[in-house]
Amino acid sequence: MNGSLYPVAILFAAIFTNNILLTNYLGMCSFLSVSRELKTSVGLGVAVTFVMATTSVLNWLVYNKILVPLELEYLRFIVFIIVIAAFVQIVEMVIERVSETLYAALGIFLPLITVNCAILGVSLFMVIREYSFIESFTFGLGSGIGWFLAILAMAGIRQKLKKARLPKGLEGAGITLVITGMMAMAFMGFSGMINIG
Amino acid sequence: MLPALITSVGAITGISAFLAVLMVIADATIANYGEVKITINDEKEFVVKGGKPLLGTLMEQEIFIPSACGGRGSCGLCKVKVEKGAGQYLPTELPWISEEEKAENVRLSCQLKVKEDLSIRIPDELFNVKEFQATVAKIRDLTHDIKEVTFDLNEPSEISIRAGQFVQLRVPEYELTDEPVYRAYSAASVPSDKRHVELEIRYVPNGICTTFVHKYLKEGDPVVFNGPYGEFFLRDTEREIICIAGGSGMAPIKSILLDMAEKGSNRRTRYFFGARSKRDLFLLDEMKELEERMPNFRFIPALSAPEPEDDWDGEIGLITDVVAKHMESGDNTEAYLCGSPGMIDACVKVLTDKGVPEELIYYDKFG
């Protein structure tokens, strides 16, 4: 593929064919617990997208400019976690300070996603697949949008489900997991289009 | 090997230290809200350091808002009316706030951060809530599993409590808990005795507080508690009174009765006390004495499963059946219930069936 087009391909692949939630099943716990309401899902979706896009870039810098020259690649797990945690904390403080509306919509979710494995997953995939700086950014952004899309779809479905009569044992997490499986299968339909790994 | 180890440790330390410094700077600049003024009920003013949740900030000023979960936003109890300076509702508050409360600017104080000058309104009683340092004056066995514990107040040396209210006892770190926890117990003492608080504590196997009190607490030990809290107290009306309690539910009812006796109340009062067998009954002499002091008061203990050796000629059966048997119309009656949730729910049903208006049935459920 043309080198300049590749980042765009990664963006779309991360959203559709390699959706981090629906193909890798990462970030499930906040996906399951916050997808009850459309409004909170949007808040969390935006927060995850923002944090994924920024931390993938930050971690790319830390990895390629510090860990690789020092030959300390094996430390990436712990370093990535520390970077994500510190970044999220500081972003939360900034948002709380500058915008009350944004804080109410997004800020309270930030501590939640510090421990979201999808965020760490993005940084680790970026290393495994040897992405460049720009590719890492589009991959992080795309994965965030993909996660956002998945939780938005789930919240929409669950909104409808409230009126449905479900067998007792399937209520709550049960039906959510079943639907997630179906959504994953539906997304498999995109899989022939682009492949990034 | 060694150089690799040193570079690894150095790199991790360096990165962590850099981020830690960043966080400290952020905390001191971005998250620094400076000094903020909190006005309470248009009367009192405090200047506090901003940036922390309202619940904790008030606690530092020795104003205690009741909270069962300790500020994690999962009990919804620590509600406070905030008239000015609160900003928008957070999603973490909304599940606990009804539409009416929203219209009145009621907020969850553990979620609301103090960022600018606040004007809040809290019930006057909460001003009364304080933390008390006390000494265990006496511990006595009421039954095989209930102990009566009397505290001597040291600092502050007097408590102003309404009969029926409860306090929260602080259990320090010990075998069963690695952090201090608070548990609520109704006061059994008469409110006019401002220098003492008496609790009745029933042993629950592996209960953090009850085990501490039953197995570890000794006379002379220092204790810390805060209070008083609660809306469970005698209403000032002319209606007849039905009290129902089981086990250590005796405590608030005893306090209410002692208070009535002292004030010379003449209201017709019946107190039904449910127990399994005779060994679960207690304070019978005190109740007899109360019957003598108050001509219109009757104590009716009932055993649900008396032992053969109990030689019991009093009421037998479930407390609900005994209440139903003794009660005529409940139109002119109000009721005070204290005990397990199951017992209270069953009794509320009997009382409403008898015609006691539901809003005049007051209860204190053991959670």
The helix content of chain B, as a percent range, equals 25-40%
Largest interface: A-B, 27 and 22 residues
Secondary structure category of chain A: mainly alpha
Major sheet size, sense and barrel closure of chain B: 6 strands, antiparallel
Strand content of chain A: under 5%
Radius of gyration of CA atoms of chain B, rounded to a whole number: 25 Å
Overall radius of gyration of chain A: 17 Å
Mean pLDDT of chain A: 88
- Shape, per Cα inertia axes of chain A: globular
Q: How are the elements arranged and paired?
A:
The complex is a heterodimer of chains A (197) and B (367).
Chain A: H1 6-15, H2 28-34, H3 38-67, H4 76-98, H5 100-105, H6 110-114, H7 117-128, H8 133-161, H9 173-188
Helix pairs in contact in A: 1-8, 3-4, 3-7, 3-8, 4-7
Chain B: H1 2-29, E1 35-40, E2 44-49, H2 54-60, E3 79-84, H3 99-103, E4 106-108, E5 118-121, H4 124-128, E6 130-141, E7 146-155, E8 166-171, E9 181-186, E10 196-202, H5 208-216, E11 222-229, E12 240-246, H6 250-262, E13 269-275, H7 284-293, E14 297-303, E15 315-316, H8 319-326, E16 333-339, H9 341-353, E17 361-365
Parallel strand pairs in B: 1-5, 12-13, 12-16, 13-14, 14-15, 16-17
Antiparallel strand pairs in B: 1-2, 3-4, 3-5, 6-7, 6-11, 7-10, 8-9, 8-11
Helix pairs in contact in B: 8-9
What does this structure look like?
The complex is a heterodimer of chains A (197) and B (367). Chain A is mostly helical. Helix content of chain A is 70%, strand content 0%. Chain A has nine helices and no strands. In chain A, α3 packs across α4, α3 packs parallel to α7 and α4 packs across α7. The model of chain A has no long low-confidence stretch (mean pLDDT 88). Chain B has 367 residues and is an alpha/beta fold. Helices cover 27% and strands 30% of the residues of chain B. Chain B has nine helices and 17 strands. Chain B has helices at 2-29, 54-60, 99-103, 124-128, 208-216, 250-262, 284-293, 319-326, 341-353, and strands at residues 35-40, 44-49, 79-84, 106-108, 118-121, 130-141, 146-155, 166-171, 181-186, 196-202, 222-229, 240-246, 269-275, 297-303, 315-316, 333-339, 361-365. Chain B has a six-stranded antiparallel sheet. Chain B has a six-stranded parallel sheet with strand order 15-14-13-12-16-17, sandwiched between helices. A five-stranded mixed sheet of chain B has the order 2-1-5-3-4. In chain B, β6 (130-141) and β7 form a beta hairpin. The model of chain B has no long low-confidence stretch (mean pLDDT 90). Classes of the chains: A mainly alpha (197), B alpha/beta (367). At the A-B interface, α3, α4 and α5 of A face α1 of B.
